[in-house]
Design a protein that fits this description.
- The chain has 14 helices and 14 strands.
- The chain has helices at 3-13, 44-47, 56-68, 80-93, 106-123, 144-149, 156-159, 182-200, 225-238, 291-298, 313-328, 331-352, 386-396, 425-446; strands spanning 23-27, 30-33, 38-41, 99-103, 131-136, 166-169, 205-210, 241-245, 270-273, 285-289, 356-362, 365-370, 399-400, 413-417.
- The longest helix has 22 residues, at 331-352.
- It binds pyridoxal-5'-phosphate.
Length: 450
């Protein structure tokens, strides 16, 4: 391992400085390290490499764009790439999301989206609206404002007062409060939103943001359709904008282009996309907004937020090529079919291993929750660092799992199973077999038999 790698990883691996191996090349679902070892990527990096690595069509589009121009600042020149990408996203997102604003990361896109919401409130003569309500648990990014939205207590004093987070509980299908069925709990969570809006002063509430299908913070959990419908009704009742953070769930990952496309009666006002939008080929993120709000903002002073790389032509060219591959190869349909197959295979190994408490997800956004006891959903002791240990064991099997222990494991320990949307049955079989081996090894280790 080179000093550069070790030194860089000191930022997030602690004093040992032990980073992961160097990467040599990547193709499809596979990555080879500098020692020639092959890994299969069970989580698309951090749920990003939706179409797999090294797709020649995307590489050709990048070369073509780069040969014309890489950069054009939007206030100097319009690039056809961004206008075309905006138009294509609008067609896929469905009614009411006609415009797209492009930036480079999910955190920026969430911030921009909420800044836009604030400008829209001012444009509509509702300048008292500024508060944003989010869910607990949630994850919306790593800038100061998005960390305040995400209810992670890790940075608490620094975030205090930045905007003070206003949180409501997120539904939980696996671990609702004792004596409450998951469906009723989801409806209680929706009513908690209503109560929180009233308590905060309805005229001061700008937006409610949530991940419709949770990513790392909730292990691919989602709620019954009535929850989304009720949340929409509540937002309508108080004139609150409903924002779906689809950074993980969007771009075809759950078997529809947006997860929102599943609930036509609960259309969001604004949607945030990232990760799969650029597929790891380029940093690309966006928020989608209705034309009437964009027009209102444009007519009342505009939306002058600077980011040097906003609507970056090369990133937008990548976004277009990724959409071509996604639609041309029917990857959204594949995500739906392979997702069913994957959950079936995971449920089969669940029968063999009592550590697997729950298998859940939509399309190819899935999680396996690891427990001490399945019936009571009791968690393993936090100090075991379950996610970290399972990741390490998986790596030994040549299986890459990206995981993050959200909120210090307070809401459970799960690993994501979210391979690229190009996954075949053979790929899924390989991933599930590797997982079965590593979870069995972990079971034996915990039982003192390793
Ligand atoms: C749901 C969700 N929102 C926002 C973000 C932040 O995106 P980025 O890491 O690109 O800033 C993430 C990243 O994991 C995410 O999962």
């Amino acid at each position: 391992m080179t000093n550069t790698v070790a030194g860089m990883h000191r930022f997030w691996t602690g004093p040992t400085g032990a980073g992961p191996p160097g990467i040599a090349r990547a193709k499809g679902l596979h990555i080879w390290d500098t020692d020639g070892r092959r890994f299969i990527d069970a989580t698309s990096g951090p749920i990003t490499v939706n179409i797999g690595h090294g797709d020649e069509r995307v590489l050709a589009a990048m070369r073509e764009q780069a040969a014309q121009f890489c950069f054009a600042y939007p206030s100097n020149f319009e690039s056809e790439r961004s206008t075309e990408l905006s138009r294509r996203l609008a067609a896929l997102a469905g009614p009411g999301l006609e415009c797209a604003f492009f930036v480079s990361s999910g955190s920026e896109a969430v911030e921009k989206c909420l800044q836009f919401a604030r400008r829209a409130a001012i444009a509509r003569g509702e300048s008292a609206r500024y508060r944003v309500i989010s869910r607990n648990p949630s994850y919306h990014g790593s800038t100061r404002a998005t960390m305040a939205l995400s209810a992670d207590p890790g940075y608490a004093p620094y975030l205090a007062g930045h905007p003070p987070g206003i949180h409501v509980p997120a539904p939980s299908s696996f671990r609702p409060p004792a004596g409450t069925a998951a469906g009723s709990y989801a409806m209680q969570c929706a009513e908690a939103l209503r109560a929180r809006i009233i308590e905060s002063g309805p005229d001061s509430v700008l937006a409610f943001i949530m991940e419709p299908v949770m990513g790392f913070c909730g292990g691919a959990d989602s709620a019954p359709p009535e929850y989304y419908r009720r949340v929409r009704e509540i937002c309508d009742e108080f004139g609150v904008l409903l924002v779906y953070d689809e950074i993980v769930s969007g771009a075809g990952r759950t078997g529809t282009f947006l997860a929102a496309n599943r609930w036509p009666a609960a259309r969001p006002d604004l949607v945030v996309l990232a990760k799969g939008l650029g597929g790891g080929y380029a940093p690309l993120a966006a928020f989608l907004a209705p034309a009437h709000l964009v027009d209102a903002v444009a007519g009342s002073g505009g939306f002058h937020v600077g980011h040097t790389h906003k609507a970056h032509p090369l990133a937008c060219a990548v976004g277009l090529a990724i959409l071509d591959v996604t639609l041309g190869d029917r990857l959204i349909e594949n995500a739906a079919t392979m997702g069913d197959y994957l959950r079936g295979a995971l449920r089969a190994i669940q029968k063999q291993n009592p550590l697997i408490g729950d298998v859940r997800g939509l399309g190819l956004l899935n999680a396996v929750e690891i427990v001490a006891d399945r019936d009571s959903a009791r968690m393993l002791p936090r100090e075991l660092d379950v996610v970290g240990r399972v990741q390490a064991l998986a790596r030994e099997q040549g299986l890459l799992i990206y995981g993050r222990r959200t909120h210090a494991g307070r809401f459970g320990d799960w690993i994501m199973v979210a391979p690229p949307l190009i996954a075949t049955r053979a790929d899924i079989d390989e991933i599930v077999a590797g997982l079965a081996r590593c979870l069995e090894r972990y079971r034996r280790e915990l039982a003192g038999q390793a």
